[in-house]
Amino acid sequence: MEPGNDTRISEFLLLGLSEEPELQTLIFGLFLTMYLITVFGNLLIILAIGSDSHLHTPMYFFLDNLSFVDICFTSTTIPKMLLNIQTQSKVITYEGCISQIYFLILFAVSDIFLLSVMAYDRYVAICHPLHYMVIMNPHLCKLLVLVSWIMSILNSLLHSLMMLRLSFCTHFQIPHFFCELNQMIQLACSDTFLNNLVMYFAAVLLAGGPFAGILYSYSKIVSSIHRISSVQGKYKAFSTCASHLSVVSLFYCTMLGVYLSSAATQSSHTSAVVSVMYTLVAPMLNPFIYSLRNKDIKRALKRIIGVPEM
Q: Name one GO molecular function term (predicted).
């Protein structure tokens, strides 16, 4: 492909995390291992919830959806990266790049919405325990997930369609291991004001809004736990939301770390390295966080694997 004055190019080059040949094998092995752990770990969570009738509750229904989204989220970027290393090719087609942006935003925003819905679920469980099953009925749970998907689809469709209006001239090298929205907008040679406006507005609305909801839910949870007289009661109440709080902290801290590091260093390579945290490390750790701190999940996993219960 020869760069020229064409406003429409057919390919981009993903520069990846490193261009040093001796590191490619190490990166391939590391990312393949982490990707397989992510997929199998989240699949085990899905199988455990589906096979155990005791886990057919609102909390585990949302966790089931979160595990599915995490698998899809990592599968949007990592397989293409591994394929490029294996084939020693950095090429991604224009259509492939737009598709990657669409699905990456779709599953990232779905993740955010599901985490906020799970915070609401914990709020109802701790602050209104007597009305929990009435409020969090199957119809409401399905409706919350459906609305989360619809909002995510519409948002990712908007960003993808707005990408189609941009022209790319001579800059077709992406200093990343996937087609990241902000990087793509920076590469465009046409006016990107509207794209930037929509991107930042959506980030504040669709990431900041749910995060504010999570903070509100936990402020009510902390207030409710504080009113419990016994230490054992406080511990039991807090333990029901400790795993979710850990996952929320991991997801938002890694996302925040990416944008703070890119803003501080102005280095695309640094941003690419740090983005590994939320695209792969966070989804990989989620199954461990929920299984290690949850007796019901551990019991269901032992039954699947065939380990006798003590």
A: G protein-coupled receptor activity
